[in-house]
Amino acid sequence: MNTDPTGASTPTTAAATDAHANAPLVFITGASSGLGQALAAHYARQGWRLALVARRLSVMQAWCEHLQLPPWQCRLYAADVAEPASIRAAAEQCLAQQGLPQVVIASAGISHGIDTGCWEDLPAMQQIWQTNNLGMAATFIPFIGPMRTRGSGSLVGVASVAGVRGLPGHAGYSASKAAVLAYCESLRGDLRGSGVKVTTISPGFIDTAMTRDNPFPMPFLMPADAFARQAAAAIARQSSYVVIPWQMGWLARLLRVLPDWLFDWALAGRGRKPRKTPGDGQDKGGPQP
Ligand SMILES: NC(=O)c1ccc[n+]([C@@H]2O[C@H](COP(=O)([O-])OP(=O)(O)OC[C@H]3O[C@@H](n4cnc5c(N)ncnc54)[C@H](OP(=O)(O)O)[C@@H]3O)[C@@H](O)[C@H]2O)c1
């Protein structure tokens, strides 16, 4: 691990850098927790170099120390994906210090319950879209030009089964993930023939901070490390779209074709994630996948 107090890493010895310069590089947002952290652990085990991004630098530092990652393998960037200048600076530092990644994974995301009749919930909705949507675009943009020039690379957007239909009580989150699905599909078409691949990953229920307090059963709940293995395999085979676990893929297909009256009936009375109360800095937790 290698960081300075600003969150950007400092160069390690030239010899160590040269010796490992050929190891592939993955850039991951949301790396301080959950899916992002599990993906980082998976790629670290495979010998990849890591460029890890989140707001909580100290959490990522503690994780790197716990895994005893050598300095050449991991650099940390404290950045807020909801602030374009912040994530842009992190991406540019990565390009300058570590080079152009083979894989960029936009996993950073938040979810809150929303009461669509309340003005007070509008800022929470804005924050969800700013993080889950603009944050994803701002994560990818710095890498698209260089990857096009190189003629290779993978951009990976983490969507959700919650984006397949609009879940009551979760208008902000469901809409954000529906937008991720469409955004990544557009991007895939834009980059067709360039050698740059786009993979959309829709997780079902994965055991992370985001789902841990859900007050209802979560079908096919999966450990984060198992998710990471399957996600990395999908990225390696350049899948355009995958639902993990696969059982949720069938559920998502079913949800898509249910008539509205049946969908509304099936979802009525389902548990809802608490709304974000004013002044609550917490971005964690959520009952929806
Ligand atoms: N867990 C599931 O079942 C599930 C299902 C479907 C989809 N997903 C999606 O998977 C992704 C990861 O979720 P998770 O389960 O791993 O949640 P998590 O454990 O709560 O982790 C969320 C990560 O996003 C980062 N993050 C949040 N806002 C950020 C911001 N503004 N700037 C930079 N980083 C930010 C957090 O880091 P800091 O707080 O340190 O910044 C944290 O590392 C999300 O996009 C989520 O919507 C999860």
UniProtKB/TrEMBL annotation:
Assigned keywords, A-Z: Oxidoreductase
Record GO cellular component, one term: membrane
InterPro entries given in the database record: NAD(P)-bd_dom_sf (IPR036291), Sc_DH/Rdtase_CS (IPR020904), SDR_fam (IPR002347)
Pfam families, sorted: adh_short
Gene3D superfamilies: NAD(P)-binding Rossmann-like Domain (3.40.50.720)
Alphabetical list of SUPFAM superfamilies matching this protein: NAD(P)-binding Rossmann-fold domains
Organism domain of life: Bacteria
A GO molecular function held by the record: oxidoreductase activity
Family: Belongs to the short-chain dehydrogenases/reductases (SDR) family.
Name of this protein: SDR family oxidoreductase
Lineage: Bacteria, Pseudomonadati, Pseudomonadota, Betaproteobacteria, Burkholderiales
